[in-house]
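This section describes the prediction task in plain terms. A model, or a person checking by hand, is given the sequence of a single protein chain and must write out its three-dimensional structure as a string of tokens. No templates, partner chains or ligands are provided. The sample shown here is typical of the held-out split.
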Amino acid sequence: MDIMDIASKGIVAITKSFGKKVKKNSTAPEIEKVETLKISGNGYRAGFSTDEIMPDLTKGKTYWIAGHGSGHKMEGVLSPVYISAVWLDCGNEEGMLWLGADIVGMTRIEINKIRSMIMASPKIKGCKCINFSCTHSHSGIDTLGYWGKPNLVSIPSDGKDPEYMDMLMNKAVKVAEEAYANRKSGKLYIGDITIKDGLQTRRGFLDKHEVLSRFRFVPDDGTNETWIMNFGAHPNSLGGSNRMLSGEYPYFMRKQIAEENGANVLFGIGAIGAMDAAELDSEDNVNCIKLQAKMIADAALKIDNDKELDPEMKIMQQPFYLPVGNYVLTLLAMRHVMSFKAYPNDESDIGIAMMTEMTYMSIGGKKVLLLPGESFVSTVYGGYKSAETSPTGKGGEINPTPLAEIAGEPDMIVFGVSNDMAGYVVPPNDFILNPTQPYLNGYRDKFDLNHYHETNSMGLGAQKTIADAFADVVNRF
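The expected answer:
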């Protein structure tokens, strides 16, 4: 038995003891079933704002790059990183805000703080819903805490910088206020395009869902359009050796669209679990992300199937409990590496759950689902592995119904890493843990595929919990 096996046994014991204390000393409040919010009017109004969220480089502080291994000190800047906001209403006094940022993710605890700050602003009226989507750049500043300096068994310290987090939250309020102030009347369209061979995966998926979706707001006064875009590719191609701050391909994609079309862009990722943008330059990672950006921007500029949307929105923002079975992430929470509140839960091996949420929307009839983690594409759109091709030897029949099938919307748009960061969501028949170091280190299956993703999941039951919660939302929507 090596040191990592011993460490793993210790982590399991510590976290299970923690779960028993949580169960003994606290209760899990019943979560209210949220009613569907309905907004309609005579025509859409939208406003946009964006601002940099750059760290202070004058103080000699250490910032940690998020997204690959922990302990990666930022050494410079490849591209600036941004936060943006879109206000959307139907011509009356009620609407919603949608924010997006070039960060790897943020917990619901921080996002709820941002929501409270925005709702307290006297400059915004009638806001009924706030969503926060992350581009999930693997070259941004650590905003979760996972990527600080690690100890001997690879457990990181908190990588968040308090001043940077405060700045990020204040900038969120600023762009929200400005987006509200910038609202103007116009028409809203939805369109999409398939980017053939635009994605790659190392987990052997049957279907990659290479669809780029675009909401396109066209102001009546002829000023710049506002786009809300979605594509299911990890912004991670600078790789684990990178120490430069960057928004990766989303930054360069937005830059090209602004230069060629003038459009403002809020971008969010889709079902990105084990899904990367195509490797377009294997020798030069910087050139690779620029080519990825061009591939996606070129496709967005070619969309020609826009459909005008009626001015009506339905929104349901539903919290739910997600059982936590990940011993390592629980230990990080116990050490206050990231923000976390544990609730007692009988479905978890540890005995705890987190409170997270999903947002289901119909915008002019187009269905959109915002999810808290990194869902494997098959959990959303189907295409499960067979018993012969799955690492467990079990077929897709043991997996929950895919979310798009639950919704009855095969082309439903999914935004991942939105309103919370709840890890990877892996189908049960594709879920493999390291037998002696569960959640601490990955494991290669009989097909030599790396099951790293499970180490950053909440556990085997995550997909079922999300599917059950979504089925309830759809039934009441």
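For orientation: DSSP finds nine helices and 21 strands in the chain.
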